């Protein structure tokens, strides 16, 4: 069977799938709504969704989707989230002007982005930001797994504002 998640390999949701449902095949989808629909239609046995980050609060879109859904929360797990500033090979942090990522990741790094004098730009997910990075003046806020998956370099580790940064992921099913 499979577990649907939002994003592409390297997403924190993908990492949650591998950690909390290691026997299931992770299937990446474009949106949280697609994850819910996939499980409701029986295309995936489970869905993995981020519900709340300990530093910036709930993922409102996910909460609203679950309220309108027939799915049940089967389990909750906390995943430590380490957000790194990723660049193209050969990039230097002094040349970066904009950090690209999912809005929740941007919020988790807001203080450090100000300190680095970086603008922010929203992307559908942290992993999509990493996967689509092509401008040497931009960097992605994403996981080390995303750096490895898409041939990026870590320009600065742990750019989240608080040392303890974790997200509660829920496993949903019928």
SSE blueprint and pairings:
Elements: E1 2-6, H1 12-20, E2 25-29, H2 32-40, E3 46-53, E4 57-58, H3 60-68, E5 72-80, E6 84-87, E7 98-101, H4 103-108, H5 110-115, E8 119-122, H6 126-131, E9 138-142, H7 144-150, E10 153-156, E11 166-173
Give your account of this protein's structure:
The chain is an alpha/beta fold and 174 residues long. It is built from seven helices and eleven strands. The strands form two sheets. Strands 1, 2, 3, 4, 5 and 11 form a six-stranded mixed beta sheet that branches. Strand 1 (2-6), helix 1 and strand 2 (25-29) form a beta-alpha-beta unit. The longest helix has 9 residues, at 12-20. It is globular and about 50 Å long. The model has no long low-confidence stretch (mean pLDDT 95).
Briefly characterize the structure.
This protein has 174 residues and is α/β, with parallel strands linked by helices. Helices cover 30% and strands 33% of the residues.
Through-space gap between termini: 14 Å
So what's the overall shape?
globular
Mean pLDDT: 95
State the order of secondary-structure elements, H for helix, E for strand: EHEHEEHEEEHHEHEHEE
Outline the low-pLDDT stretches: none
Number of strands: 11
Q: Give the structural class.
A: alpha/beta
Measured by DSSP, the beta-strand proportion falls in 25-35%
**Number of helical regions:** 7
Largest sheet, in brief, is: 6 strands, mixed
Q: What percent of the residues sit in helical stretches (DSSP H or I)?
A: 25-40%
* Rg over C-alpha atoms, rounded to the nearest angstrom: 16 Å
